[in-house]
């Protein structure tokens, strides 16, 4: 919170990383940071600023403030624009009417050889991301499909997309009483909150009808359908064409900024 307060004191005309050129600004930020760091590290007042920052594991406040400002600006763009330079923004948010707000629940998967089961999975290998699902009818594999996402997309994005394309497939084939099974609990839990504002998540929630039941299965337990979907998702990472192109998510952006802070430091 302190970093954001300090950040608001400075107006940045360009969204890029640089160190404050104004000496008085640097001195002010160092003084703001030095006092609490001395208390944290329990060191003498004669210890240099650089030493106390290293001991406390806190980068210079000036660098951190600029990085935080950049992160906030970029995150805001991702939340307000659905697409940027041909890439989808997974974190794009939109308002939905109150009467369309819904909660999608999920169940624990109980193995059965009867009915329509669609297993989904997302995989990431060396920054290459693949998505796949496989459709079983009464325990027999009927069809599978594979997709590749843009390099660097998050695993969470892949798992969400796997559920999305599986639901679309069930509508395409007019399947009734179909179970869509995923091993990503985080993806399924994202469909539950009523306050969710991400457009992609809400689109999935809206497409779930009474014929669809979402289920969670534990990964790497030898369940054939799940292992088959995982195998197909790994193969999808090697596809030549990219089916869905995504910008980096806000979480990925924050992680990149943390790395940049360490490099600048």
Describe the structure in your own words:
Keywords: Endonuclease, Hydrolase, Metal-binding, Nuclease. GO terms for molecular function: metal ion binding; nucleic acid binding; RNA-DNA hybrid ribonuclease activity. This is ribonuclease H. Helix content is about 45%, strand content about 20%. It has helices at about 1-5, 25-40, 50-55, 60-80, 155-170, 185-190, 200-205, 225-235, 250-265, and strands spanning about 85, 85-90, 105-110, 115-125, 130-135, 140-150, 180, 210-215. Strand 4 and strand 5 form a beta hairpin. The model is unreliable at about 1-20 (pLDDT under 50).
Tally of strands: 8
Pick out the low-confidence regions.
Answer: 1-20
Could you state the oligomeric state of the chains shown?
A: single chain
* Count of all domains: 2
Give the overall shape.
Answer: elongated
Structural class by helix and strand composition = alpha/beta
CATH superfamily of the largest domain: Ribonuclease H-like superfamily/Ribonuclease H
Mean of residue pLDDT?
Answer: 81
* Order of SSEs: HHHHEEEEEEHEHHEHH
User: Helix proportion of residues, in percent?
Assistant: 40-55%
Count of runs of 4 or more consecutive helical residues: 9
How would you characterize the largest beta sheet? 6 strands, mixed
CATH C-level of the largest domain:
Alpha Beta
The CATH architecture classification of the largest domain is 2-Layer Sandwich
Question: What integer value in Å does the Rg equal?
Answer: 24 Å
Strand order of the largest sheet: 3-8-7-4-5-6
**Might you state the CATH topology name of the largest domain?**
Nucleotidyltransferase, domain 5
Q: How widely separated are the two ends? A: 20 Å
Beta-strand percentage range: 15-25%
